Structure formats: structure tokens, C-alpha cells
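Hello K.,

You asked for the raw outputs rather than the summary table, so here they are, unedited. I folded two proteins back to back in the same session to keep the settings identical. This is the first:
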Amino acid sequence: MIDADGSQLGIMPTQDAMRRAEEQSLQLVEVNPKTTPPVCKILDYGKFKYETAKRERETKKNKKTQELKEVKFRPKTHDHDFDFKVKHARRFLEDNNKVRLLVQFRGREITHPETGRDVLNRVVKAVMDLATVIQMPSMEGNRMNMILAPKPRRDGGPAKPKPARPKLEAGADGKSDDKPTEGDDEDEDDLDDDLDDLDGDDDDDVDDDDDVDDDDDVDDDDDADDDDDDDDAAEAPAS
């Protein structure tokens, strides 16, 4: 039994506890029903409900659902694309999301799985300040997977929100000088393109077979030109 001022009153009959609460124009509330005997406290029940609901709202507000994001790589991902994808992985981790790293193999690339592990190790080194490995690299068909989880923040709070762009103060005529710039629309388009590129595979790799085919086409054209020159020379009358 706990009094309204927080002092311990010890174990007492329920009727005596209720009478003591009525004398103070307060209520007897069971605050811990799991103990034997249960713990009760004399308090203002209306205020108690308000504070309890407020704590629940704050907890729900600060609690963010953790999602599993995915970032795809290729065994021969170029440095520019690699840095771009690592940037997205870091952003996901900063938002307190797990990240699945995926290396997609094509054709004979599957015979060299060590290239996929090398890519994953590079990513881990780039995000080791934010993440820990919770699933080591494993093969699933022609894909190699690894899962990272964000490290717990030292302050225990949610990820820092992105700073809002400051608004300019109104001018002398009362109108705001904050005008949209031409780069705003371009930035939004670039972001959409970046997200599309993130979900897709790298198409920048040049196949050696395509280069060979192009060379063959050039050789065939040269041969055809030579044959035409020979025919023209044969048809010309002797002087």
C-alpha cells in the first residue's frame, strides 16, 4: 500500500485502504496486479489516467517500425555506382532500418563467388560505423545475400530528422522573397531517377561479345568496299 505522498503504508485490509483514500478525497488504484499481494496506491484517478495515456502516446510516437531495405550490387559494380549505392545503404541505416545487401551474378560470374564476397566486404567497411552484420554472406540461387542491422544509438533516441530549408523573411512590400529555384524540380527528378537506379541492376557493364560483333561488322564493310573497287577496275576499257 502506497500513500498519496509516496510513503509506504505496508500491507493492510482493502476496506481500510479504501477508507483512507476516501478521507483524502482520492481513489485507491491497483498499480501492480502481478505481485502478491497486489500493490495499490492512493491517488487522483483522473490525473493518473491522463498521465498514463500521455506516456503511451509518447512511446508510440518515438517508436518507429523497422523495415528491411534492399540494395543491389553486381560483381563488377563501378566505383561511382558503388559509392552511390553505399550512400543509400547508409541513409537506410541512419533511419533505423535493416539493410539486405544483394550481389547479382550473371552467366559464368557464378563460378567466382569470391568476387561477390569482396563487394560485400567493401560495403561493410564503408558502413561499419553505423551497422553490424546479423547474417553472414550466403548464396541463394545466383544471388549472394548479407543482412546488416543499425547499431543502437548512444542517446537511445530516434534518428535525427533532416533539417528543413530555412524560409526567407518577407520584404518591405510584405511579400516573401523565398522563390522556387529552377534546381528544385531537377533535384526531385534526380531523386526519383536515383531510386529507380537503386532497385534496378547495373546496365553499365559492357559485354565483350558486343564489341567483337561490332568489329566484325566493320571488317565486312571494308571487304565489300574492296570488292567494289576491283569490279570497277575490271570494267574500265583499256586505253
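The second followed immediately with the same parameters:
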Amino acid sequence: MTLDFLPQFHDRISHPNGGNIWVSAPHPETLIPMKQNYYRIWQCEEYQRLCDAGEEVVALAISF
């Protein structure tokens, strides 16, 4: 399915079956603690948008 946005908080990887899946990207180590909560919120919103678009998304508990 074609996305109408470019995901910034998830990385696309190839699936052995030939398809693609999205994986949550860990937050950058340089991210200041105050911004980590915002990063998690944005990542969660993006996760929902990817799911709504019918994409296969793997959510790692450590990312949220």
C-alpha cells in the first residue's frame, strides 16, 4: 500500500517472504531526556498511522 507520508520513527526492512515490514527505530542516544517523551508519542502516532494504512509493523516494547 502506498503511504501518504514518510515515516521518521520506523525503519523499513525486507521480509523473507519478499514483502516489507516496519520496525520501530530506537531513539537517538543524543536525544535529551526532556524530548524522549515527545519522541515516544510521535513514534506511537506514526505506528498507528502505519497500521491504519495496512502496513505490517513490528512494535518493540523498548521503543514505546
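The chain has a mean pLDDT of 79.

Happy to rerun anything if the numbers look odd on your end.

Regards,
P.
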